[in-house]
Each structure stands twice: as structure tokens, then as C-alpha cells.
Amino acid sequence: MKFYLKDFWIFISIAETKSLSKTASQMGMSVSSISKRLTRLESYLQMTLFERTTRSIKLSPMGEVAYEKSLLITDEFQRFIDELKSSKSTLKISTPHRFIESFLIDWCYEYCRNKPNIDISVIERKESMDSLDIDELFITNRKSGYPLAIHRQLHPVKRVICCSADMDENVAISTPDDLKDCSTIYFISNESEYDIELIRNGDSYKFINDGLHLSSIEESLKMVLEKGCVLVGIPFIHIRQLVKMKKIKVILSEWEMKDLNYYLVWKERPYFKKELTEFLNYIEYKWKEGCGVY
Length: 294
What we know:
The protein is of the alpha/beta class.
């Protein structure tokens, strides 16, 4: 027979109110349900807890002992619950994409400063998702085959073409074809991406699959600022601040390229911690704020 802690709370209430109907009212249950729970507890303990008459109900001698012990059990359990609620929550967030991790750390740092009761671990993870921890969020550019994974598509990441703000003004760049005369490099979001296509009012332009392709944000921007290269396909979120500082400028802005799409993934379960839900909404908000159009 299973042990039900709530039965002890019902037993305590009956002992203190000396009434099944008052206990039923307190517990939001029917009198018949209260009676059945009491019978189940007596069967489990193999003792009679109350002496009943047609007009009254009072604790039996063994019931008196059980009442004192039940108070200790339920008080200890309540302290356990209170400690859990007041303790720090630890959340995890991970991504296999280094260029996402770079600003993810800044967001998590900001969140922890405003939420002192929250610990966040930004962890490294490979692309495959064989499992997810109970309070882990995962950002990826492809849907997972993990059966318990819930996917929420994030705001599309805009990509642009940029160069150093002090690039020689004598170098005229008015069409994508003009980039052939420049030191042009390409940012790729994954190993399979080498063909980058630009679109403008129904016209399209596809870059020839040659030249330097980089997946590192840091190294890509270093080539722009130190080598004077033109960078194609950089997510705008990574140069927004540099544009404000007038170190980098966006060129050929009328030409658009395919957005980068990412998913926020977490493990399905019937109950979500409030902390996880709030953190999930925060990441989605920061993503949209940072990845929108310039």
C-alpha cells in the first residue's frame, strides 16, 4: 500500500477540528473523500486513530501518539519545501555555435545581476542532442530529433555586408559585382554553407564559391578592421555596436540575403519552474532585440 503524506495532514486537521465536515471545508474536498482518506491511513498504520460516536469524534490513545508524530513529520516536510523554494535555482543554457555564445554570456551576466537568487551555467555542447537536462535551454540552427524536445523558433537573424568605416572612398561599391575588386571574405554559419545569394527586388546575385570563408566572428571582424576586407554574411547583431561607434559601416544594404534561423529548445515536462519560464522569455526578448533589422 502506498504512503500519502496528504493523509497525515487530513488526519491532523480532523484531530484539531474534531469534525470531518470542517476538515472537508478546509481541504476543499467532500466529506466522503475525507472519510475514505482517513480509512486508508488507518489501514496503512494498522490502527484505529479515532473513537467515534454518533455525535463526536476524538483521538484514540494510539491516535494521540500518531498525532504528535504526524506534527513532527509534516513540520519537517514543510521546512524542506520552504528551503527548496528559497534556495537558488540553477539554470543551464548551451549552444554549439561559438558566435552565439559570445553575446549569450553577456545576456546571462546581466540576468544574474538582476536576479541574485539565480545561478546560470553557460556550457559547451556538441550539435547532437541525445538528452537535455531538466532546466537546460539549448540554442541551435536545426531541429532536434530528441523525442522530448520542444522547439520555439527565434526571431530571424539579419545578415549584412560590411567594411571598415574608413575604407577608401575612392573604392566605389554600388553592386555586388564590385566586390570582385575588393578583398572580400565570407562569414559562414556552418560548415555546409558556402554559397551565399543576394536578392534585391526580384534580382539575385550568387557569389562564386571561392575566397576565404570564416566561422569565427572575432577573426572575421579582425580581417575587416586590420586588413581592410569586405565581409559578406555577418549577422548584424555582432557589428551593431561597431556601427554605432563608426568603426564599421554596412554597404549594399538594399541587397538582402537569407536570414539565419535558430531554435530555442528545452525538455518537455508537465511542470515548469517559474524561474525557467522567466529565463526562457528573457532570452527570447534579448534575441529579438539584438537580432532585428538595423
